[in-house]
Amino acid sequence: MNKETLLKELSKVNYPGLDKSILEMKIVDDLSIDENGKSEITLSMQNDEAFAVLESQLNDLFAGRVKVVRKSAAKKSIHYGNTANPNNRAPYAKKIVAVTSGKGGVGKSTVSVNLAVALAQKGFSVGLLDADVYGPNIPRMTSTAHEKLQWDENDKIIPSENFGIKIMSVGLTTPAADTPLVWRSSVAVSALIQFLEDVAWGALDFLVIDMPPGTGDIQLTMAQELPITAGVIVTTPQPVALDDVSRAIMMFKDIGVPIGGLVENMSYFIAPDTKKRYDIFGLGGGEKTAKKYAIPFLGKIPLDMQIREFSDDGTPAVAMGDKLQKGYYKNIVENLLKEIGE
Ligand code: ADP
To answer: pLDDT tens digits, residue range 289-298?
Structure first.
């Protein structure tokens, strides 16, 4: 087999779970064919699971004729061409924080809103981009859902503003809250790039992005198009959520996005009448996961009926809550700022 045939075959092999080939993702580090026709492929990867899947796929594809070798990406300074040296579609933002989660419903958007507002309360200029195309809830959570898109004289979209932050959401492009966005990921990505480039954000200290949950094409493209300062990963403490969050952590590590830390949401519940504490989803899961992957643990937020009401009413807890409720988010922001050297 010659190099050309080998490359052609490899261009058809996708990174596990994504519709991008391993060539496009630049994880093929080396390709060699010796004089006896023996071939060897070196893959630069950190994710054990994804490597195991690819190794067996390549062994099947080449019927064992090509040796698959793994090189730990950590040994190289640039391992993913694009994500290690990303474009910068948001040069107006000094720092970019991408909030994500393994699965939906864990409170990622609530955390994004409260982190953004807490940063603004500290005097930073903050933009919040709702990139969760599957559940764009930021307009409701910030009382901006009624607003219509408006353009300035330079044809830039004017972001909404509330609680001291600028806000833009894919949700504002649909006529009603219950209209689903049926977008292929390529369309979602173009819309998000437009929100990065064609919104009059002004100079920002922080652009906080509420990412979609999971590990897909959108996360990958955002990592290629933006120099993300820190990924913040939100989880609840039960094992099923932690399994999903492990995948999100590994993906961030694999694509070279620095992880600012893990937030554990809905950590416990204090009954308002008896003040008894219930560890509904188990105890300490988030901290254990952070330790396992050697990432910072940024803090916990309990399951609190009022936080849910604040979210649904469009009044973030960090702005309208009591001292305790504000404290959960402020503590997380302080820890995050320490991690990113602010
Ligand atoms: P995601 O973005 O992960 O899908 P959301 O932020 O939309 O999650 O939160 C899902 C639901 O859980 C919302 O109704 C929200 O108000 C509620 N919620 C989030 N965090 C908490 C919390 N700490 N206590 C109570 N309810 C919460």
So the answer is: 999 999 999 9
Q: Where are the beta strands (DSSP E) in 138-294?
A: 160-162, 165-169, 204-210, 230-235, 259-265, 269-270, 277-278
Pick from 110, 234, 238, 301 the residue to mutate for probing ligand 1's pocket: most ligand atoms within 8 Å of its CB.
110
Task: Please name the residue whose Cα sits nearest to atom 19 of ligand 1.
Answer: 107
Q: Is the confidence at residue 75, as pLDDT, over 50?
A: no
Taking the centre of ligand 1 as the mean of its atom positions, its distance from the CA of residue 107, in whole angstroms, is 4
pLDDT in tens, 127-136: 999 998 878 8
Taken as a whole, the chain contains a residue count of: 342
**Distance from the alpha carbon of residue 102 to the mean position of ligand 1, in angstroms:** 14
CATH superfamily name and code, 93-339: P-loop containing nucleotide triphosphate hydrolases (3.40.50.300)
d(CA 213, CA 15): 18
107 SS3 class: coil
Domain ranges of the chain: 3-71, 93-339
Q: Kindly report, residue by residue over 252-299, the tens digit of the pLDDT.
A: 888 889 999 999 999 999 999 999 999 999 889 999 999 999 999 999
Whether ligand 1 lies within 6 angstroms of the CB of 309 is answered as: no
**Closest Cα to atom 16 of ligand 1:** 308
